[in-house]
Amino acid sequence: MHPEISQVLYFWFGELENGLPKQPKGKLWFGAGEVIDQEIRTHFGQLHQRAERGELDDWATTSQGRLALIILLDQFSRNLHRGVAQAFANDDKALALCKQGIEQGDDAELSMSEKQFFYMPLQHSESLDDQQLGVQMLTKMMQGLSGQTLKEAEGTLKFQQLHLEIIERFGRFPHRNQVLGRNNSAEEAEYLQEGAPRFGQ
């Protein structure tokens, strides 16, 4: 495995046991904070730029490399550009990597936590079809799981279903409207005023 692929995956997951990180990663994965964002900027900012330019596309020839590339483009983009339109600039490329990987069966080789982020571009998509595919893949992922691994997977599926419900209702994520220069509908404005989730953005 390419050393930089290993660096991305170890930073994101650490050591895995029964499909779960041995050390808690919730703050890294789902917390919104400048300390973590700066750490990613310091260690992976240049690598992220190379991924954006297509210089790391050959990583996608392996399941682990494809996963690392998805994390760079889907997750790290949100850390490096939190609160601005660039946070979503690489979503299409990450989504294409995800869907192509599913078609090729790359995801079958991954653990539960790895699959969680392999499928994340589906959760970030504003396409209803992609959202439904995300639910389908996570439901499939849960087969055969038990204990804490199953509990974590159930939480992931619940979050996926929340994203699906938003897309079913609005056809897009209203919390992105401002940074993307989109006007809110009256229903969206009311939804946002009620304290709708922003998912770290």
Automatic annotation (TrEMBL):
SUPFAM superfamilies in the record: TPR-like (SSF48452)
Domain of life the protein comes from: Bacteria
Pfam families reported in the protein's UniProt record: DUF924
Gene3D superfamilies, sorted: Tetratricopeptide repeat domain, TPR-like
Record PANTHER family: DOUBLECORTIN DOMAIN CONTAINING 2 (PTHR23004), DUF924-DOMAIN-CONTAINING PROTEIN (PTHR23004:SF7)
Name of protein: DUF924 domain-containing protein
Organism of this sequence: Ferrimonas aestuarii
